[in-house]
Amino acid sequence: MILAINTSTLQFGLALLGEEGELISEFFMSEKKGHYGSLMPALDFLFSKSKLDISDIKAISVSKGPGSFTGLRVGISAAKGLCHALGIPVIGVSSLEALASQILESSLPVTAVLDSRRGEFFAAQFAWSGGILYRKSDDVCCKLENFPSFFANTGILIGNDYLNQASQIKDCFSDNIILAPVHCWSLRASSIGFIGFKRFSVNDFDNLNDLEPIYFRPPDIRTNTFPVASGSFHK
Q1: If 0-12 CB within 10 Å is exposed, 13-18 middle and 19+ buried, where does residue 1 land?
Q2: CA distances from residue 101 to 120, 125, 169 in whole angstroms, order as listed
Q3: Quick one: DSSP state of residue 19?
Q4: What are phi and psi of 13, to 5 degrees?
Q5: Distance between CA atoms of 14 and 156, rounded to whole angstroms?
Q6: pLDDT of residue 224
């Protein structure tokens, strides 16, 4: 059994896949900032409702980014901790690859987009050939107006926030873009899991100690502006 974890987006999720790669159960939560504290209770809920035991997990597939700085740290830390405790391998999966894989067997290139910050987007382009999803570009982080220079042959566009992304990006292109169906516009943990299962079947694992999130920039951490009391403390 494979446990899949996605915390690269605000819509975090968990999924369990069976011995043949079939989906057993999935938990999806669409929320705003600060909800990753629900991750471990959600994991407990997933197992209790599925009537499965966590000791049956053979590997963990986890989103490694790009995506939310805090979310990636939470998800990868949880995956590493569970893998250490259970003595099982970890598989880090590209968030953009997993999102693109939700468009099956398209003859057109698939451009996957995730929200960044400061008006920018993470994006990469993929293509299907012979039932295998291939990468056509490296991950990029760019502003909306620069999209056409990175992806001239856009094909199908899929993102993680239909209401805020679809119309904006479509306006940057002429007629050479097709929006993915609206129900596809959420990165699902099961997509992370399906890619992880394929790698698990050929023993393609990541080094547990070396797996790190994919970042494009340092975290946006601001200096504390509150005054600090002067003086010293005495026992």
Answers
A1: middle
A2: 22, 11, 20
A3: T
A4: -155, 165
A5: 26
A6: 45
Work out the pLDDT band at 174, boundaries 50, 70, 90. low
pLDDT tens per residue across span 29-47: 876 555 677 888 999 999 9
15 half-sphere exposure, CB direction, 13 A CA radius: 27
- In the block, residue with structure tokens 């949880």: 78
204 Cβ neighbours under 8 A, 6+ residues apart:
91
CA angle 32, 34, 37 (to 5 degrees): 120
Is the CB of residue 49 less than 8 Å from the CB of residue 16?
no
The residue with tokens 């119309």 is 167
Distance, CA of 212 to chain centre? 13
User: What are the φ and ψ backbone dihedral angles of 52, each rounded to 5 degrees?
Assistant: -120, 165
Which residue in this structure is represented by tokens 């494979």?
A: 2
Tokens encoding 141: 């982080």
Reported as half-sphere exposure (CB side, CA atoms, 13 A), residue 204 has a value of: 9
SS (H, E, C) 88-141: CCEEEEEHHHHHHCCCCCCCCCEEEEEECCCCEEEEEEEEEECCEEEECCCCEE
Residues 65-88: pLDDT tens digits?
Answer: 999 888 899 999 999 999 999 999
Mean model confidence pLDDT for the chain: 86
The model's pTM is 0.88
Confidence grade of residue 122 (pLDDT, cut at 50, 70, 90): very high
